[in-house]
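Researcher: Please translate sequence to structure tokens.
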Amino acid sequence: MIDLDGDRIVLRHRLTADAALDRLSTPARQLLHRRAAELLEGEQRADRPEALAGECAEHWQYAGEHTRAIELLTGAASRLTGLGMPIEAARLYERAAQMTSSPPDKLHHLAARAHALFLGADWEPFVHVVAEVESLQRGSRSSPDNHDDTELELSLAKWRLGADRRELLAEATRCASAASASDAHRLAAAAWALMIADNLCDDRAAATVMRVVASAAVQPGVEEDAVSCLHMVFHTAFGKPESGLEAAYRLTDSQLGAQDGGSKARYLSHASAALRLCGAPIIEARQAAASALEIAQRLGLAAFAAPAANQITLTYLAEGDTVTARAWFDKALWLMERSADSVGRSTILSNGAEIALRERRLGDAERLIVESENAVGQARSPRSDIRHVSFRWRLALLRGDAAPSEHDLRHFAHLHRRTRKANGQDFATAALMDLLLLAGRRREASRLLTAYVREYRRPSTSLEPDLERLRRDLHVE
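Model: Translation complete:
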């Protein structure tokens, strides 16, 4: 019935052990659980104190020591987050929330669980937990306002899951203008709203965002990084590229001494895009993205890893190095595999399609175009629409079977006019120009390309090779 394990007695049969425990009085049972918890705590490895946390906490709970059990769970969860294991941490926070009888404590543990799920990019469970948090908050406070980090994390999660872009933009703009929110929160909400407006190619919405957040950006003591990020996003997408570049440099410089974490990884990844698009040497954009990726992978921040790898892909694509770009595309896609992030997956797949088209791998290009379109689903935007349309027509041009109708050309030209102010439109513009030339409409092609290059094109980098060829052929200065 029993075995010896060193100085311990081990029961060989679980059912026998359970029956024996059932016959004990409550005080005797609690004493045994207390002793088991003490033994487990003594056996925990110095380098992995969280390894037996769940089992140990369960014994403390049955010993009637709920506070000690919860402290053990939350302490281990915090260490797991620091070790780059946020999903495992979320499970411990869940147990702590289930164990407590205090509504404020339950709210605290659920919020911690939600943040861990966010860091681990487990989007759907994150959304469900946030709904539970909001339900508890409604029952515990008189004010309906809840402007905190979870609010913005929820908006990003909804974005990743394909929610309506216009609704997200409206929510973020309201948050940026909320008098009850802190200045730092309003600035973060405004930067996020600008990113959504950029995706929608909506410069009017961007101007509105900058107007409603203007007062927060000049308040004494406001966080400089938040202000730099706001100006970087606005000027990269809508304003002056040179101002966007200055803000990107301020942000990257400030991050040199910042503590590693989600904010640092996010800032560096965003700065990488701004540096690439606003005229910095490509190596600087790549270094910022590489630093973001290193932090994200080391800390298990899945929410930031794939986007950072994707930024590295784009730096090599900007240099025309499709071989290295393809290797980084594969890594970004691998980092995205376990995530329900349909939009991020579509973006990465579309970059893979562009690489395949440039390398004339037409079968791969067609497959990647289809997969990217399927991934984006109902989360389409003017940006994604023109990208996919241009890919399909470039594929047809390379195959020699492009025969655009008048309706096709009008539709493509309409998408071009909607998106020509946005960053990254060289590839789509080149495809449209080639189709117009194929249809014998050289004058229209020259007029549209002249307007694009002189008035609308935002990147400070050199033209994409096909567009440079067309500029020379059409004699556009």
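Researcher: Any highlights?
Model: The first helix runs from residue 14 to 22.
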